[in-house]
Design a protein that fits this description.
SH3 type barrels, alpha+beta, six-stranded antiparallel sheet, about 70 residues, about 20% helix, 2 helices
């Protein structure tokens, strides 16, 4: 089931299915390795959402996190 990454819990594994943000934001995320099909883990979901994708950690705003759809494992 697809859900926004904002609705995931700390420590939860995910796979990105869709970047529903603006083209500019999607391009920036893709350059950082946040692309459809990639798997990762939620490190924090407090004031900002912190994701671990491979050896990279990304901090994104809650607004942006609402537009990234994932499946959880």
């Amino acid at each position: 089931m697809l859900k926004p990454i904002i609705n995931t819990k700390k420590g939860e594994q995910f796979a990105i299915q869709c970047l529903g943000c603006s083209c500019e934001e999607a391009c920036q995320l893709q350059q950082l390795g946040c692309v459809e099909g990639v798997t990762g883990k939620v490190i924090s979901n407090y004031s900002r959402v912190i994701l671990e994708i491979g050896n990279t950690r990304l901090a994104i705003s809650k607004d942006l996190a609402k537009s990234i759809l994932v499946t959880t494992t």
